[in-house]
Amino acid sequence: MSTDVTILAAPKASNPSGGKKSSALIDNVWRAVVLVAVFLIWGFLSTISDLVSSPVASFLALADAFADGSIYRHLWSTLNAVAIGFLIAAVVGFPLGYCIGRSKFLGAVFDPIVAGAFATPRVIFFPILLQIFGVGVGAQAAMAALAAVFPIMVSTTAGVRAINPLLPKLARSLSLNRLQTVTKIYIPAMAPSLMVGIRIGFSIAFINVIIAEFFAARAGLGLLALRAYGQLDLPMMYGLITLLALIALIGNLALWAIEGHLRKTT
């Protein structure tokens, strides 16, 4: 008597990394399609309206500004104000957000105050900043710091409150001191939320620096764009708008990449 035994082959394991790479490639292709569509629409609008400069003329005007060196002082002023203001907001916002998130008393007192201040347009404080710092990078950086500190505070507070309550107990069981608890337990656990606040804070800081340059500045890309508008130099104006959009895009993509890396490692 013979017995036939059929051995079923185990299904091949799928390759998740390959699927992720394919999905990322598709996403990048669609992003490129969107950008091409934007430039095509821009080019079409330039053919039907005298108020819209063509992409080619705008890029040539911007290239001329880089070639003769006239744009570098304004570019440095804008980037300097954004960097200083953003760093001040981070240095102030992280500790305050951490303290508010850790303390029920501070949370009860400051949560409604921070929410109300977050909803207040910071541009209304720019005349006060001009009186304090004068016209220049100082007032623009202060404007950026005042605008960016609130999203960083809010995201830090939310990140602290979302920490698993077992993690502080783990820190005590490992006999970690306060500094070690913050650096080894809290910051890794809060990292994704912190990066969201940093990304939003950078965007708001950049926007408010440009707004400040529209009102009062000795140099800056916003001031240069406003001058181009006043002189009806449409190619230069659209070129500067494109440059500002490119700077904001590069900054956000860099922070987005850091955020994605932190999400994978935490």
UniProtKB/TrEMBL annotation:
- The portions of this protein that span the membrane are 29-48, 81-101, 113-135, 141-164, 185-216, 236-258
**Top-level taxonomic group:** Bacteria
Q: Report domain ABC transmembrane type-1 positions.
A: 75-259
Protein name, entry field: ABC transporter permease subunit
Question: In this record, what's one Pfam family?
Answer: BPD_transp_1
Looking at the keywords, is Nucleotide-binding present? no
Name the keywords, alphabetized: Cell membrane, Membrane, Transmembrane, Transmembrane helix, Transport
The cellular component terms of Gene Ontology attached to this UniProt record, alphabetical and capped at eight, are: plasma membrane
The text of the family note is: Belongs to the binding-protein-dependent transport system permease family.
The membrane topology noted for this protein in its Swiss-Prot or TrEMBL record is: Multi-pass membrane protein
One GO term (biological process) = transmembrane transport
**Cellular location of this protein?**
Cell membrane
Q: Which organism is it from?
A: Cryobacterium serini
Q: What does UniProt list as this organism's lineage?
A: Bacteria, Bacillati, Actinomycetota, Actinomycetes, Micrococcales
Q: Which PANTHER family match?
A: ABC TRANSPORTER PERMEASE PROTEIN MJ0413-RELATED, ALKANE SULFONATE ABC TRANSPORTER-RELATED, MEMBRANE SUBUNIT
